[in-house]
Amino acid sequence: MFIQGIKRLANKLVRETKLYIGKIDDLDEPKRIEIEEKLKKLDDPTLIQKFHNLLYSTGYTFPSPISTWNVKDVYSYGPELALHKVCEEIDLINVINRHTNKGGGPDLGKVVEAMIIARNCDPCSYYQLPDWYSRSSLSFFLSFPPLI
To answer: Nearest Cα to 22, choosing from 36, 13, 35?
Structure first.
C-alpha cells in the first residue's frame, strides 16, 4: 500500500508516492504508530488524514486514549472534597488561626478542619481520627501530613 500525494508537473497532475506502508490487513498498533511518525516527518498533515481514512475504510479500530493511562492509586474524593470546599468558602482555617493562640505544633486551623470533616464523613472517636485521616484523601486537599 502506498500513501500518495499529487503534484503538478508540466501543467499535468501526477501522483507521487510519498511513503510505502506495506500491507495494512494485519496492521498492529506499534506498526501504525511507526507509520504515523514517518508521515509526520514528511510534514504534510493531509497524509496522516489519508492514512486514517484508509484505516477506517478497512475496519481498523483505533485504541482508546484511555487504554494508555496507568492508574497507580484510586482515592474517593467525594465527601472530603465537598466539605473541604465548604470550609474554603467560609475561610475556616484562617478564622480559627486568627482567633486562637499559637503555641507550637501543627496548624490548628487545619487540625480543626480535619476533625470537622472526619465527624461528618465517618463519626469516630477523637482517638480514631489519625487512623481515619491517614486513610482519607483529605491530606491532599489540606496539604497537611497524616496526623500521628
So the answer is: 35
| Residues 84-114 pLDDT 10s | 999 999 999 999 999 988 777 778 898 899 9
Beta strand 2-9 pairing with 12-20: antiparallel
109-122 core/surface letters (b: 16 or more CB in 10 A; e: else) = bbbbbbebbbeebe
Cell of 64: 482508546
Contacts 24+ apart (CB under 8 A), 99-105: none
43: left (phi over 0), alpha (psi -120 to 50) or beta: left
Predicted TM-score (pTM) of the model is 0.47
